[in-house]
Amino acid sequence: MSAASRGAWARSRSRSRVSCYKVTQITIFVASPGDVSTERKSVVEVAAQLNRHMARERNVQFDVRAYETEARHRMYPEGAQALINIDMPVEKHDIVVGIFWKRFGTPIKELNKQTGTEYELRRAQANQKGDPPKPEIAIFFSDAPVKPSEADGQQLSKVKAFRKKLKGLPTAYDGPLDFKDKLREYLSQYLRDHHPVTHEVTGDPGAYIESLRAETADIEVQRVKAGGDSAWILPIADFYIPLSSASRPLAEEAETNRKLLIMGDPGSGKSTFLKWLTNRLCLDHQNAHGGPLPVPITIAALSAHIGKKHTGDTPTETDAPDWLIHCAAARCKENSHRLSADWFRKQAKQGNCTFSSMDSTKRQTNPRAKSSSASSTAPQRSIRVAGSWSPLASKASSPSPASRNAASRTCHPSR
Question: Looking at the chain, which terminus has fewer C-beta neighbours within 10 angstroms, N or C?
Answer without folding.
Answer: C
